[in-house]
């Protein structure tokens, strides 16, 4: 296209086109300049004289990178933005060589690029910009230099630290390294501490994950850590997890990530470094200078957080935590029209397997109702143990007290269920028989800061007694489910606050004649504060020192009643911790038990908090709004 043809297309004179395309357009209005340049880009118009005239626009943008890694992150966004603005790209890299950098700048001038985005090798090479000035080529310097366009890592460090402060952390470690960007990040960390009137402590600053002591979690040196490098954050995360620390329960962890690569590690909470936005803005700034825009584009990037997976408030401010101690099994279900009995063979066409056992069932129930839970028990050295650990992880339950036992089989429960929901259970103890007092003492740190301990008696009684004694020593409420056991010792009874047997179990722990009320009174006389006797479809009785109250069972169709007691105990404890009275908590627990019998399998049928409370709102609104309920649930 000739200049005359282009001038006719643009509706301006040949002289006007010549002045604009040769950068001699001071007398031309901004509106006319923008119109002509827009058409030139659309029609790829370049004057024939461009090769001979250094000031002629070529619609080419030069990019000189020093840091190859940063270049990879930025070049795609610069290229995309440049193309949208009508410019092609000429790319060069300098590495650490000032000599190469000089050659690159000379090449940009010789190619008559309209402008250059330039990342200098160092502050000492900034003088090379004079060569671009003499050639009349506008440029944008990127990097940590005065007047340069620069990614504000200080602001990112400030933002990251601020997120942890909002989670009420006051002891925050910083792992930042020693390059220029990491130092800026550290300054942002330090600034936010100052702004929040939190003390800066040099002993909480570390160069890498290796130097950050995992023991600092246990001794309270820090409750959170902010990392400049995602790779270093991952190293520390894996080290802490291998040592059975729970993140974020024991430590909150926040890092940065390359925003152009999306989630990267979605299980780590991270702020995106906006490299894409930065590259696009650099291109816009350069074009604004080339085309003499009246208003320079503003740049206010966000640093979006991908997930709160590794963020929480400090442990002493977290939700109330429950410990569940007892049997962990694989539940093997067989469904029958009628249960087998002596002299009769029956067949089943339906079977299923689920992680279970009273310890795990109650832990899952409490977790679904909104509390943090830790389990203490044993599994075998077999494939079933992997399924157990996966189930625990899926429910976000702390498994640091759940031990694998080589040479032992994971406990097995064989559950026979008939159509009306009635069931029979036989148990192979397996690794459950190996739970010992040492397992409890080894997990003593879990008792510190917990508020309730659920204990089941399908493990050796020495471990049960140790668990009850330790729970009382730490001031925890103790709730006992007596199962597969005989009379309980005086030493154990004095350490139990709430016992929840069914009628048959009550007869086993209190043998001899007497009514339910009389046997419950015997337990109360030994120091237990509350005895709750569950009666299946008959509801339950609550016995205290001077009170007795009967609670009706909730009306649900029974498919499998195996886990009703575990669901009851889970909800009982959960709502006691939410501030409800014993009677109200039992009424809610009866509803939770009702939900649990509507599906086969215990853990799949345990109700979650939202579902249970929606049911209560519709069917017992006065119960869920009980005045004794705490407001800060």
Care to describe what's here?
The structure is a single chain. By secondary structure, the chain is α/β, with parallel strands linked by helices. The protein is built from 22 helices and 22 strands. The strands form four sheets. It has a nine-stranded mixed beta sheet, sandwiched between helices. Helix 12 (358-368) crosses helix 19 and helix 19 packs antiparallel against helix 20. The protein is elongated. The chain starts with a helix and ends in a 9-residue tail after the last helix. The model is unreliable at 49-53 and 627-633 (pLDDT under 50). Catalyzes the phosphorylation of ribose at O-5 in a reaction requiring ATP and magnesium. The resulting D-ribose-5-phosphate can then be used either for sythesis of nucleotides, histidine, and tryptophan, or as a component of the pentose phosphate pathway. It is an enzyme of class 2 (transferase). Its EC number is 2.7.1.15. It is found in: Cytoplasm. It holds the Pfam family LacI.
């Amino acid at each position: 296209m000739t200049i005359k043809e282009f001038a006719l297309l643009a509706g301006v004179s040949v002289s006007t086109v010549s002045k604009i395309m040769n950068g001699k357009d001071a007398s031309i209005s901004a509106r006319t300049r923008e119109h002509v340049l827009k058409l030139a880009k659309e029609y790829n118009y370049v004057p024939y004289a461009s090769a001979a005239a250094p000031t002629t626009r070529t619609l080419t943008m030069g990019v000189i990178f020093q840091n190859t890694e940063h270049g990879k992150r930025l070049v795609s966004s610069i290229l995309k933005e440049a193309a949208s603005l009508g410019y092609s790209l000429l790319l060069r890299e300098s590495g650490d060589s000032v000599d190469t950098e000089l050659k690159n700048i000379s090449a940009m001038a010789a190619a008559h690029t309209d402008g250059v985005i330039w990342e200098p090798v160092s502050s000492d090479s900034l003088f090379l910009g004079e060569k671009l000035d003499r050639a009349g080529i506008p440029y944008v310097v990127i990097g940590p230099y005065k007047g340069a366009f620069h990614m504000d890592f200080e602001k990112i460090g400030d933002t990251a630290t601020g997120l942890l402060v909002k989670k009420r952390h006051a002891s925050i470690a910083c792992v930042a390294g020693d390059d220029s960007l990491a130092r800026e990040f550290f300054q942002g960390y330090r600034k936010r501490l100052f702004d929040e009137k939190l003390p800066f402590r040099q002993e909480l600053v570390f160069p890498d994950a290796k130097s950050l002591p995992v023991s600092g979690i246990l001794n309270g040196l820090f409750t959170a850590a902010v990392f400049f490098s995602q790779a270093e954050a991952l190293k520390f995360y894996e080290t802490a997890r291998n040592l059975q620390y729970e993140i974020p329960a024991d430590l909150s962890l926040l890092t940065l990530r390359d925003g152009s690569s999306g989630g990267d590690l979605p299980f780590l909470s991270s702020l995106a470094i906006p490299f894409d936005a930065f590259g696009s803005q650099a291109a816009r700034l350069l074009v604004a200078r080339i085309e003499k825009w009246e208003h320079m584009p503003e740049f206010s990037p966000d640093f979006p957080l991908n997930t709160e997976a590794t963020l929480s408030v400090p442990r002493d401010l977290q939700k109330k935590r429950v410990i569940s101690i007892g049997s962990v099994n694989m539940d093997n279900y067989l469904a029958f029209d009628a249960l087998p009995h002596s002299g009769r063979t029956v067949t089943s066409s339906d079977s299923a397997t689920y992680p279970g056992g009273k310890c795990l069932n109650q832990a899952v129930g409490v977790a679904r109702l909104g509390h943090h839970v830790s389990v203490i028990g044993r599994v075998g050295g077999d494939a079933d143990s992997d399924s157990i650990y996966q189930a625990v992880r899926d429910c976000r339950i702390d498994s640091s007290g759940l031990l694998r036992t080589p040479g032992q089989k994971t406990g097995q429960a064989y559950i026979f269920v008939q159509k009306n929901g009635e069931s029979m259970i036989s148990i192979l103890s397996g690794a459950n028989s190996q739970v010992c007092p040492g397992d409890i003492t080894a997990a003593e740190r879990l008792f510190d800061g917990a508020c309730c301990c659920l204990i089941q008696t399908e493990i050796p009684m020495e471990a049960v007694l140790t668990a009850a004694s330790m729970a009382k020593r730490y001031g925890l409420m103790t709730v006992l489910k007596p199962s597969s056991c005989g009379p309980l010792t005086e030493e154990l009874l004095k350490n139990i606050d709430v016992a929840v047997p069914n009628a048959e179990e009550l007869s086993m722990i209190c043998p001899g004649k007497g009514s339910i009320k009389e046997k419950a009174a015997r337990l109360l006389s030994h120091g237990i504060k509350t005895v709750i006797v569950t009666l299946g479809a008959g509801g339950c009785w609550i016995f205290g020192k001077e009170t007795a109250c009967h609670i009706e069972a909730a009306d649900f169709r029974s498919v499998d009643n195996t886990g009703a007691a575990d669901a009851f105990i889970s909800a009982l404890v959960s709502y006691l911790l939410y501030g409800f009275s014993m009677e109200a908590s039992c009424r809610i627990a009866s509803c939770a038990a009702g939900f649990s019998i509507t599906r086969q399998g215990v853990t799949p049928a345990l109700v979650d908090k939202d579902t249970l409370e929606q049911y209560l709102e519709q069917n017992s609104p006065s119960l869920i709004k009980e005045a004794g309920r705490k407001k800060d649930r």
